[in-house]
Specification:
single chain; two-stranded antiparallel ribbon
């Protein structure tokens, strides 16, 4: 489910140190990497934890993003307070959506969530919500400044100098703190009694029901938790990108999150970062290879990854673990 203690500390140390020595554009990309990692982690709880498929994560992401945008721009709420609000609203939304979806499973559940993802951008464009959502034009979100001046190393053309922390760097570390907290919550959730109940439902629903597990409660709870975490990711995305619009949350976003989960390894939480890196950085690599055929290049790379490592990054991690054990022996 997780990496070892040493590997986890090494990854966290790298996430802390690397932004100090790269330019703001790279920091922005790394921030989006963490944000999509949260969304993929949330989907991993639903699919890898309880065995339910969803292609509607972009809808929850959109609700979280608009919650942050509306609260910041129309209500004057501090950006940090929009995150728990987005999580609570999306948890309720996901829990309520999970109730009618109880009758569905497998591809039928995936189709229902697909319909939700397709419908959400159109709902956000409705005139009745235009005062809040800005309609097709969306909302511009003010990027927050660091609360106080923090001296940090900065990479310039003249070399490494000491300067003040930029907005992009501050938002990166703010996102890193939030994503770390969510990762710890997700690990503890899946290791708890609730997590064991979810995995029992995933493995065999009949056996789980025979053991006294309340299937409707836990399945809807999984939807709620997944939606809540995805909503927090959407709120962070709105704050970092400084803009929310209906066409930013199409079915392509939901498919990208699903692809990230598969590439990272279904049910393996650290793979969320690997899958997020795939959907954030690989399209740029594909475009650098061929601007006119970037989609085709991305498809070839994705096919190669799935063909070579069908279980995603988790399979690579197992290979490395076995190789290290052989070296030690």
């Amino acid at each position: 489910m997780t990496l070892g203690a040493v590997a986890t500390l090494a990854v966290f140390a790298a996430l802390v140190v690397v932004p100090l020595f790269v330019k703001n554009f790279i920091i922005f990309q790394m921030t989006m990497w963490l944000i999509y990692g949260i969304a993929i982690l949330a989907l991993n709880i639903l699919t890898g934890g309880s065995g339910q498929f969803s292609l509607g994560q972009s809808a929850f992401y959109a609700v979280g993003a608009y919650t942050a945008g509306i609260m910041m721009e129309l209500m004057g709420v501090n950006y940090a307070l929009t995150l728990p609000a987005a999580g609570i609203i999306c948890f309720i939304f996901g829990f309520l959506f999970g109730l009618p979806a109880l009758r569905l499973s497998g591809v039928y559940l995936a189709l229902a969530t697909f319909a939700l993802a397709v419908a959400m951008p159109q709902l956000l464009k409705l005139g009745v919500f235009e005062h809040w959502t800005g309609g097709v034009q969306g909302l511009v979100v003010t990027k927050p400044n660091p609360p106080f001046d923090i001296p940090v190393p900065k990479l310039t053309d003249a070399g490494v100098t000491i300067g003040k922390m930029s907005q992009d760097m501050y938002l990166y570390y703010f996102t890193l703190v939030v994503s770390t907290v969510i990762y710890i919550l997700a690990v503890n959730l899946l290791r708890s009694r609730t997590g064991r109940a979810l995995m029992a439902i995933r493995d065999n629903q009949i056996a789980a029901a025979a053991m006294g597990i309340d299937l409707p409660l836990y399945k809807t709870l999984a939807f709620g938790v997944t939606a809540g975490f995805t909503g927090i990711a959407g709120a962070l995305g709105a704050i970092v990108v400084q803009f929310v619009a209906p066409d930013s949350f199409t079915i392509q976003l939901a498919i990208a999150i699903f692809v990230g989960m598969v590439v990272g390894g279904v049910g393996w939480l650290p793979g969320s970062l690997v899958g997020s890196a795939f959907i954030v950085f690989v399209p740029n690599i594909a475009e650098s290879i061929s601007k006119g055929l970037s989609g085709a290049v991305f498809g070839v790379i994705l096919f190669a990854v799935i063909f070579l490592v069908p279980h995603g990054a988790r399979q690579v991690a197992y290979y490395l673990e076995h190789a290290v054990k052989k070296l030690k022996s």
